[in-house]
Amino acid sequence: MSTPALWRFLVPLTRTCTAPQRLGLWEPLALLSPGMAPTAMLMAGKKSCPVLCPLDENELEEQFVKGHGPGGQATNKTSNCVVLKHMPSGIVVKCHQTRSVDQNRKLARKILQEKVDVFYNGEESPVYKEKREAEKKKQERKKRAKETLEKKKLLKELRESSENVTEKTTTDSN
Questions:
Q1: Residue 101: is it exposed, middle or buried by C-beta count within 10 angstroms (0-12/13-18/19+)?
Q2: Residues facing 94 on adjacent strands
Q3: Of 134, 132, 120, 126, which Cα lies nearest the Cα of 51?
Q4: Through-space distance between the first and last CA atoms of the chain, rounded to whole angstroms
Q5: pLDDT one-digit tens code per residue, 68-90
Q6: DSSP per-residue letters across 68-126
Q7: pTM (2 d.p.)
Q8: CA angle, residues 127, 60, 27, in degrees to nearest 5
Q9: 3-class secondary structure, 65
Q10: Which of 47, 108, 137, 168 is the most buried (most CB within 10 A)?
């Protein structure tokens, strides 16, 4: 291949790899950096997904062990359970939610990322805040359900007492 032909081949490739013109100066770097691209891709489909710091693959120790639980031979004899350990914090995550090793690896990384964020940020972690809000909503729903049940019982008692009063008045008048 001659040099001019090679340049004709490379120029369209460089045009497709550049970021759109409307992005700010910092955005192309964020889109092209390897650590930020997967989290940006994961965040695109979710509205209220918290922004978590990416995990460094060098700090992770990954093992594949045999599965457990129901499923018979498909889970008990194949090594599709992922055990992921974050070396600096010592947090260990074991994921065996699906039969696919790739899906279990992705899920284990997501769970580990959330746990590491909670470990380092504590109550300031977006994951912790989200779980706390969910607990509050659950308690509010439970409280409302209890109140409506009490109202129904009270209404039933009132209805029964009014029926008893009307029965007594009709029997007394006869």
A1: middle
A2: 83
A3: 126
A4: 115
A5: 877 777 777 888 899 999 999 99
A6: -SSSTHHHHSS--EEEEEETTTTEEEEE-SSS-HHHHHHHHHHHHHHHHHHHHHGGG-H
A7: 0.53
A8: 60
A9: strand
A10: 108
Q: What token pair was written down for 7?
A: 């340049």
**What's the pLDDT tens digit per position in 26-55?**
333 333 334 444 444 344 444 455 577 788
Q: Which residues pair with 93 in a beta bridge?
A: 84
Tokens of 41: 């891709």
Q: How far apart are CA 3 and CA 124, in angstroms?
A: 56
Question: Which amino acid belongs to residue 71?
Answer: G
101's tokens: 């090793």
